[in-house]
Amino acid sequence: MAFSIMGAAFQTPIICNIKNNYNNNSSYSLEANHIRRAAEIADKSAGFTSPHPNFGCVIAKGVNIVGEGFLYAQGTKCAELQAVEAARELSNGATAYLNMEPGDCHGDQTAVSALIKAGISRVVLGIRHPLKHLRGNAIRSLRSEGVQVDVLGEDLQSQSIEEALKSCFLVNAPLLYRAASRVPFSVLKYAMTLDGKIAASSGHAWWISSKESRHRVFEIRGRCDAIIVGGNTVRRDDPKLTARHGGGHTPVRIVMSQTLNLPEVGNLWDVSEVRTIVATQRGARKSFQKLLASKGVEVVEFDILNTRSVMEYCYDRGYLSVLWECGGTLAASAISSGCVHKIGPDMLVTGFLQPIPDLTPVIPSIDETSAIDPSFTPYEASIKFFYKTWDPYGAFSNFSAHPLQMPDGNGGYLTWPSVEHYYQAHKFAGVDDLVAKDCVEQIKSAKSPEEAARIGRALQRKHPNLVRSDWDTAKIEVMYRALKCKFSIYPHLNSMLLSTEGSVLVEASPHDLFWGGGREGEGLNYLGRLLMQLRSEFLGEPSTSISQ
């Protein structure tokens, strides 16, 4: 079986009038090379951070590249700002090449303002941003400031440009699929012998694939938010499903089992390093569910457990990319339900089962939507959800890239890269232990909020005795102090918060039942409640202090 990623995998973009100033193949080739380079560096953090929209920026004057940058993780410095800082005064009058339109969710347009302030005269974009609330915003802002903006396939067209455009599609395929289909991008890993076998006679699949292929699997795992297996795989192979790629990111392990006919002891029940979720039918083996919960395994019940419902759940958790490492039965179900987008078996064949989505989806008007759903009205949106930093209200997240200056306890101030850095470090504040103190220093220097959270949570799981004794009652006050600082020192964030007056704010994490709203509204939503308390205080309204 063969698949083409050069033909049907890509839909032909809409070609608008060509209005660039270039009229020879060499100039097109140069443009294409710079865009391909932007797409290449956009992928640099793969395996080291959880999947996120991949941004790369190359600043060039002719053939000479004078600055580069890429987004390392959500809540870190944007690619455009890094590039202009690297190029310094050479940015003035230069051209910036971006694999994707900037997506500022922080209300401050950092990426756009960085390019404008640096004197960039022209911006070449690979693709427009696929998320509706961000699509076209940066283009309009740049053009309103007199910056020339060209988009591949719209303003620029040639064979070399077409090839560069494909690299932009590929590096953000997970985001494109998620935006278009409302499920994470899904890859099926499936090793098979030439005579159609997927396991040895013993029933174990480990030795079907080569050593080189297994190393490739570890790399693919590091690029995913989650790995999904079925009950048969757990019973037969007792897998660990670790990434083992040398990076920092460890994908969540998800086991699908309708009956929970699973062993009581197994590698997947060790959650000291990696989290495990068991998805099952509602009501299945309650005693076994309690056993798993006692080990720290998260059990999620579904009214109807199938591949589609699990994928929708993964979408709600904010996942961009999922890897299926299951046996034939579950794999067939995932493919038939349209959950699998790409296959990558043993080092030979790789292909997309569905084309990368068109970047120009038709958005129905309010009247058209009302005709389809008479209950719809655009004036009833009284709940505003936030979760990932690229969401419409992503700036409300404790993972957003907004440094804080907080009192250090000695009369001075200490800069924290994000609210999450401050929160995680204060789990161990004041604890007289070398391991705890070292952890605090690691959290302070963590390159992203995600890494700060990973360090703090890992130590909390391994050494719960090192967490400060009053943490259960103190953590709300710690988060409140950090949020109050954040929304006090950034005027645009304060304005964004005040603009939600009259709306209920809900942190939409389906798995965090303390800070988030939970999967079915069962969460305590303390993060949303703290933001609403701050909003009332900023508006001068009476508010009640939130406590557990």
What does this structure look like?
- It is a single chain.
- This protein has 548 residues and is α/β, with parallel strands linked by helices.
- The protein is built from 18 helices and 17 strands.
- The chain has helices spanning 25-42, 79-87, 110-117, 137-144, 159-171, 173-181, 211-222, 231-237, 286-294, 307-316, 328-336, 366-372, 419-425, 434-444, 449-462, 471-489, 491-498, 526-538; strands at 56-61, 64-70, 95-100, 122-127, 148-151, 185-188, 226-230, 252-256, 276-281, 298-302, 321-324, 342-343, 351-352, 383-386, 404-407, 413-416, 504-507.
- An 8-stranded mixed sheet has the order 10-9-8-7-11-6-12-13, sandwiched between helices.
- Helix 9 (286-294) links the parallel strand 9 and strand 10.
- Helix 14 packs antiparallel against helix 15 (449-462).
- It is globular, with a radius of gyration of 24 Å.
